[in-house]
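Notes from the 1:1 (GR / supervisor)

We went over the backlog. Supervisor wanted to see one worked example end to end before approving the batch request, so GR pasted a single chain during the call. The sequence is below; no edits were made to it. Supervisor asked that the structure be written out right there so they could see what the output format looks like.
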Amino acid sequence: MKYSNVIGVLAAVIIIASCFFPWITVPEVNIIVKGFDAGNTKFGKPGLVNSFMSVCAILLFLIPRIWAKRFNLFFTGFNLAWAIRNFILLATCRSGDCPIKQPALYVMLGASLLMIGMAMFTDLPLKDEPRSISGNSAGNKDESDL
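Structure output shown during the call:
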């Protein structure tokens, strides 16, 4: 895909931005959980790992090397796994108190899916290997040369 790196970087920026918005609210106990602020809960900072992985993915999207694209699959895959973990952990009802899922939680999950898709279908032009006179790309002799 021609614009996969640009779309991947934009998806990573959207993930980081979604961490500043409310992910869930629990109206019974007046708790608002954001990506970087979990309020009076024991969730910690659930968006911190997503933000770190997104920053690493941004750097790897911008490096035009094959090793960077391979490492990017790891970082975007881990980011998607952490996003699913956050979605399950935060959206689950506890003790009869069911949280109200906010749009930023869905945006974070959708952008994580988009980001791994762009990492899988990245556009990296590969250089052709120089060919020998016999047309064999590796320079090895084939059966007709023996």
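Supervisor's comment: The chain has a mean pLDDT of 87.
Batch request approved.
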